[in-house]
Specification:
6 helices; six-stranded antiparallel beta sheet; alpha+beta; 142 residues; GAF-like_dom_sf; GAF; Beta-Lactamase; globular
Length: 142
């Protein structure tokens, strides 16, 4: 298994997840590039997001290096342009956690499940798991 596959197993075990992706931050383009996905048909590796997420999300996760927690469908709809696909996959709650190493944002974990599946405790667990993605996002094994 790769580093990110192992991480997905941990996320499933410790939090539960319906959709899990890992995005690498590409600062020169202010873009996020998908490097791992639990749903390759809907969210293929290599796909990129730029203006698809709200500016406030970028300020929170990338610039502020803080998690974004959307506990319900309304929060997901407000921030993500692909909210209809997210809902079709049965997801209505999201935790986005920046992966930070040596003071730099390397990427973001996207952890989604049914509406109401997560709380602040789940966000803390997700934050504790985020550093496990750093080796893969530094360009190592994905």
């Amino acid at each position: 298994m790769t580093v990110l596959e192992d991480l997905e197993v941990r996320v499933r075990k410790e939090l539960g997840v319906r959709l899990f992706t890992v995005l690498a931050w590409v600062p020169e383009r202010r873009a996020l590039r998908r490097v791992h996905t639990s749903h390759p048909a809907e969210y293929p590796v290599g796909g990129e997001k730029t203006v698809e997420v709200a500016q406030g999300w970028l300020v929170t996760c990338i610039e502020g290096r803080k998690p974004f927690f959307g506990p319900d469908r309304a929060a997901v709809r407000e921030v993500f342009a692909d909210h209809e696909l997210i809902e079709r996959l049965g997801c209505g709650a999201i935790i986005n956690v920046p992966v930070v190493a040596e003071g730099k944002v390397l990427g973001v974990l996207n952890i989604l499940d049914a509406e109401g599946a997560y709380d602040e405790g789940a966000v803390a667990v997700a934050e504790s798991l985020a550093p496990l993605a750093a080796p893969a996002l530094r360009g190592g094994e994905r």
